Fold this sequence. Notes:
alpha+beta
Amino acid sequence: MEESNEPKINTEEIKITGEKLLEKVKQLLHEGNVRKIIIKNKGKVIMEVPMTIAAIGALVAPVLAAIGALAALVTECSIVVERKE
């Protein structure tokens, strides 16, 4: 059996209030092993942010502005975090 060179991906789901959403996403952006952040409300995906886009400095501000606007609209949501091992 051949070993794959692809990194193993772990998924974690975090329940959070809308007012803490932007703060948590900023914290996750600073972690180096996050591959993708998915924001869900009532089980439906409302935003998906691949970290390859967020890693580019010029694109971080619009993404955070969109998440901030989204946070004002939801009371509770969940963040699904995909991490590389």
